[in-house]
Each structure stands twice: as structure tokens, then as C-alpha cells.
Write a structure and sequence with these properties.
By secondary structure, the chain is α/β, with parallel strands linked by helices. It has 17 helices and 13 strands. The strands form 5 sheets. A 5-stranded parallel β-sheet has the order 2-5-8-1-9. A two-stranded antiparallel ribbon has the order 3-4. The protein has a two-stranded antiparallel sheet with strand order 6-7.
């Protein structure tokens, strides 16, 4: 049986017509074959995989052409248009982003670089989303269905760096009980993300430079070269150019890594993104904690919108998770960490944690209703605790409420059950013995 031979010499240019023709040949082969032996089946499977890869590459090349063509369009666009244009071009982004011009510049550069195999260097403050950007580049490139391997260069001890990156042979050193693949081998045909590349020691920089130049590695304890094809994306929160001038980072490695250079602005310069991240992280935390998304009081929302976020997006995400865990239905500034809590709120809770003082006049009718509802809820809980002598379990039984949920409501309003425990006089056999009720 004659099977078609894909990838003939000189057929590097791909088109939909050519791909359809190959698919039709495959279909004809399968339709008229009375019997296929296992080797022929495996050959057809390889051919179908080749077709799939060619279609994916064509899709990414067309996306690249669209992104490049967008450059000739006027750059002046209304707020939201650049962001919407990215999404309309099937731009893969796991998360949310706003209209900050610097961030959109970075995303558009990433979109154009993704279909290529050029090295990318991402820099920015800690917590600005450098690894997310690396995943964006991988997801929008032709290697999206291949491995994505992440390496934290600052977390690997110097004596294990070469083994971690390039692997080792059995017996290469004490403890090497078996052959082991390194990160570069694991990332073959895919993407390797080198985080905190500025922490890489000079000997490790030399070995990495050799890999970039030769596309070969050697396992520790072996002289056999292994060809690796891994797209390199590196990230740092340091100024590598200045480090190279100081002699702590190799200048030739810096230029090798920064063929495409992407800089991420800090969150304090992306204020329009904060409300979007509120919603995104609240939903994410609610899903993890198996509860409804937490609501925010006007005072808390105003604080979070004006806070400087030295830890950037990572700090905001951790704050939202904290609020979702500690608060009930509505979070307030009292649920913030003490070291960043507004001073007036800290002073108020220090004087009397059970006193709720509104931070400001309600901004809307719905806020006024919410405040009134919270005050009614607090009054009900205080009245109930008085009736049961501060016994939380009894109040939970009377209200047909889970005890842990009741404890959470008490904490929300700053109510302490011990303040309501009392001596209740109940007659014993003689009718006059006081009994302590707890």
C-alpha cells in the first residue's frame, strides 16, 4: 500500500490548501484500505500528528501576522480598545489585566515574540506577574502543547546546580543512585522558565551560555552530548545591565537572554487593574474555601484602592485570601494585617474592639442599608448571648445555626461571649443555693 510522504523537500511554505490536500490523501488511504498492518497504522498516526503540528504552526503564524499588521494601524486608541484588540486576536491570558499603557506594551511584545523561538527576558519588581507572563508567552506560541518547566535559580544550591539543570549519570557523585534527567532535557521541544536568573552564580552562567550557543548539554558524570531544543524565558527583579557592568553577571549572557526584553510595571502604576483583581481573586478564594465571594465595606475598598502594594499582585492576592478566610460575608479594615491597617482603625480596636464606629457617612442608600443590617445583626447577637448567659453552643442551638458560623459572626462584630457570662441564681433542694451558669 502506498502512503503519502509528508514534509517533502522544498515544502516549507504552508497553506490551508496544502494541508487539506494532505488530509484528503490520509482519508482516501483509510477509506480504501482493506487491511492495515500495525506498522502502517503507526505510520498513519505519525502522519496525522505531523499534520496537527503543521496546523498549529499555521495558526500561530497567522496570529503573528495579525499582530504585526496591527502595527501599521494608528496607535492612538480609546481606553479599552487595545485591551479588547488583544482578546479579539485569540490572545491567551489566564487571569485579568487592565488598560495600563506600559502593561499593554509588554503584552503586545509578548504576543509578537510568542510564535518565535527567540529568548525572552522579563524584568520587574517582585510580585508583578513575571511567571504569569512567561506562561502567556508559552501558551501563545507554537510550543503550547509541549512541556513548560519552571526553575528557580535562586533556590538551587551551587553544588547541585549543574545536576538540577543538566541531569547526572548513576554514580557521578555520592547519592547519585540512578540516571536523572535535568530540567533542560525535561523541557525538550517546550519552554524552560529560569526565574531569578540574576541569582545564578558565575560558574552556572558560563554553563548556561554554552547551552544557549550549542543547544547541547552534558549530564554530570557523562561525556556524551545531548541535543536539547528548549525555548528559554528568563525573569529577574534586578537590573542585569548594571550587574553586568559591576562584573557579577556576564555581559555576553545578558545580551543572549535579552533578545526580547519585556518590563512589567508595578501594581501601584496600574490602579485601574485593582478592581478587576479584586473580583478575580475573590472568586478564586471563594472557590478554594468553598464559600461565597466576600464583600468589602466602603472603607476597606477605599483603603485597598489607595494602598501602595510594595509586594505588588502577590501581596494583593494574599490580602484577598486573608480577608476571605477571616471575614464573614463582609470584610472591613479590621480584618487587615495590623502592620498595614489604617491608624484610626487600629486605635479604635485597641481601645474597644466591641465598639463599631462608622468610618464615614454611607456613600449610598445600599451602604446605609448594609450598615443598618449589620447593627441589627449585632444587637440580635448581644441580646441572645444575654439570654443564654454567654453560652455560644446554646445560642447556636436556639438559632438553628452551625456553631462555627456563629463564632465567625461574633468575631465579625467584635463580640466576646465571656462578657455575657453571669451568675444565675437557681433554687436547689432548699431553694436558695446559687449555681454558676456557664
Amino acid at each position: 500500500m502506498k502512503l503519502f510522504q509528508p514534509g517533502t523537500p522544498g515544502s516549507s511554505a504552508m497553506s490551508y490548501a496544502g494541508l487539506i490536500e494532505k488530509i484528503e490523501i490520509l482519508r482516501t488511504t483509510l477509506r480504501w484500505a482493506s487491511r492495515l498492518e500495525r506498522p502502517e497504522i503507526e505510520k498513519l498516526l505519525r502522519q496525522s500528528n505531523t499534520l496537527r503540528d503543521e496546523i498549529l504552526q499555521l495558526s500561530h503564524k497567522e496570529r503573528f501576522v495579525k499582530a504585526a499588521a496591527a502595527e501599521v494601524e494608528p496607535t492612538e486608541k480609546l481606553p479599552g480598545q487595545r485591551r479588547q484588540a488583544l482578546l479579539e486576536r485569540s490572545f491567551v491570558f489566564e487571569g485579568t489585566f487592565g488598560d495600563n499603557p506600559e502593561l499593554l506594551d509588554a503584552l503586545e511584545v509578548a504576543e509578537k515574540a510568542a510564535p518565535t523561538d527567540l529568548p525572552v527576558l522579563i524584568d520587574g519588581e517582585s510580585g508583578t506577574g513575571k511567571e504569569l507572563m512567561a506562561k502567556v508567552i508559552h501558551a501563545n506560541g507554537s510550543r503550547a502543547d509541549k512541556p513548560y518547566i519552571s526553575v528557580n535559580c535562586g533556590a538551587i544550591p551551587d553544588n547541585l546546580l549543574e545536576s538540577e539543570l543538566f541531569g547526572h549519570k548513576k554514580g557521578a557523585f555520592t547519592g547519585a543512585a540512578n540516571d536523572r534527567k535535568g530540567k533542560f532535557e525535561s523541557a525538550h521541544k517546550g519552554t524552560i522558565f529560569l526565574d531569578e536568573i540574576g541569582e545564578l552564580p558565575l560558574p552556572g552562567q558560563v554553563k548556561l551560555l554554552r547551552v544557549l550557543e550549542s543547544h547541547e548539554i552534558q549530564r554530570v558524570g557523562s561525556d556524551e552530548p545531548i541535543v536539547v531544543d528548549a525555548r528559554i524565558v528568563a525573569a529577574t527583579n534586578k537590573n542585569l545591565r548594571r550587574l553586568s557592568e559591576e562584573g557579577t553577571f556576564r555581559e555576553d549572557l545578558f545580551y543572549r537572554l535579552s533578545v526580547i526584553h519585556v518590563s512589567l510595571p508595578p501594581l501601584r502604576e496600574r490602579k485601574d487593574e485593582i478592581p478587576l483583581l479584586f473580583s478575580y481573586f475573590c472568586d478564586e478564594a471563594a472557590e478554594m474555601l468553598k464559600r461565597r465571594p466576600v464583600k468589602m465595606s466602603p472603607a476597606l475598598r477605599a483603603f485597598l484602592l489607595s494602598y501602595s502594594y510594595p509586594g505588588n499582585i502577590r501581596e494583593l492576592r494574599n490580602l484577598i485570601y486573608r480577608l476571605s478566610c477571616l471575614a464573614g460575608e463582609t470584610a472591613d479594615t479590621v480584618h487587615l494585617p495590623v502592620d498595614i491597617r489604617p491608624k484610626n482603625q487600629t486605635a479604635a480596636t485597641t481601645v474597644n474592639e466591641s465598639t463599631a464606629i462608622p468610618d464615614a457617612t454611607p456613600a449610598s442608600l445600599s451602604d446605609a442599608r448594609r450598615i443598618a443590617s449589620d447593627e441589627a445583626e449585632k444587637a440580635f447577637l448581644e441580646k441572645g448571648l444575654k439570654e443564654v448567659g454567654g453560652t455560644v453552643a446554646e445560642l447556636a442551638r436556639r438559632c438553628d445555626m452551625n456553631r462555627s458560623h456563629l463564632q465567625m459572626l461574633l468575631k465579625k462584630h467584635g463580640i466576646h461571649s465571656k462578657d455575657f457570662r453571669r451568675q444565675a441564681v437557681q433554687p436547689d433542694g432548699n431553694g436558695d443555693t446559687p449555681i454558676q451558669r456557664r
